[in-house]
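tool_log.txt
---
The assistant was asked to compare two proteins side by side. It first ran the structure predictor on the initial sequence, then on the second. Raw inputs and outputs are pasted verbatim so the downstream comparison step can read them without reformatting.
(1)
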Amino acid sequence: MDWYESVFELIDMRSFSNLWFWIILAVMWSSTSHWVLGVPWDMVMRARKGDSEQRVHDLEAMVRINTNRILLIAEESGLLLAASSCFLLTMLALLGFVYGNEFSQAVFLLAFPMSIIGLLSIATSHAIRRDGLQGEPLFRMMHKHRVLTQVVGVISIFITAMWGMLQNMTIGALG
């Protein structure tokens, strides 16, 4: 057995049976749920308590900065991002689910829900800017965005876990 074989035997390169894949999935959704439009959720909760006018002002400023940043990216290079994202997701879906490449399946199951979150972030940013949300309406919008993000995350984790178990049982039965 050469060095190359022993490394690949030690590090399981199959995605769904690899502990690192599941750690990445958990960290990705934990971070996505915590950072709402680029603003940490604890900052939203402290501002919502209302015990400091400065916290509310800081939150509104941070939301405005991140909202403008998200919308600027969408306006400046939205078409290019949409085309390249669709190409990448289609390529991963075809390689993964038509040609049976497990790594492509795993990356698709990570990337596709995040593209939904990206679209949701653009829509939420647009609504915040259009309506000029501040104070309690801004808190409600941020909460709604976080809940929708968590719903997408729960569905994504469920589908990924079911698909991963199916792959592990199928490949385990063959091996």
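(2)
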Amino acid sequence: MTDNERVKTRDVVAEGLYIASAATRLALKNRILVHILVDGDDFDSDAFLPDARETLLGLAAEAEADAARTDRERKAARNRYSDSSGTHDYRRRDVRNLRRRVKQSQHVARELRLRAADDAELRKLVADAREAAWGEVSKNIDRSLRISAARPDLDADYERMRGARMQALRLVDLPKLRAHRRSVAKQQALRAEGAEPPPVETVQRGAVDLSELE
């Protein structure tokens, strides 16, 4: 294996482990939320170590299965020299890359099994998942509080601004509506007489002195 191939393999393995860790944290976060919010139990880090271990071992088994499948594809491709008919229709020229993929998957699986046997690593995953769970809960609490704060009975300026809004409705919006209705009625009368009516008259907001609202 060349130096470039070693670097590429190391990067692929690191990415695989990162994805596995992210998937484990997500699974743990969801279990923590159910455990605390639904079941109402107190948080205990050690209680989630078996869940973390189970998730890592499951991902390791998936990586091993991927390695076994890729190895079968590698063996089948050794005696194929014709043109490929698709993405996964491997040929002799793909054998080298397939062998590298087998080793990468095997490496990921071994590392995941090592982490699953390391209680310190499991506790770190649980701690990260707990932080993610709390972040989600705190966002929901903040959103609920903002919605509650928008209630009229909790708005300190609601009563003061309510008077201004009602004046604006009475002095601006209602006259505008009445003028519009008069124009529509005038148009209908002219059409009934066979005449061409003028454009509908409107009252622009701002025609009333806004200082009256203060």
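---
observation on (2): Residues 202-214 have pLDDT under 50 and may be disordered. The chain is about 70% helix and 0% strand.
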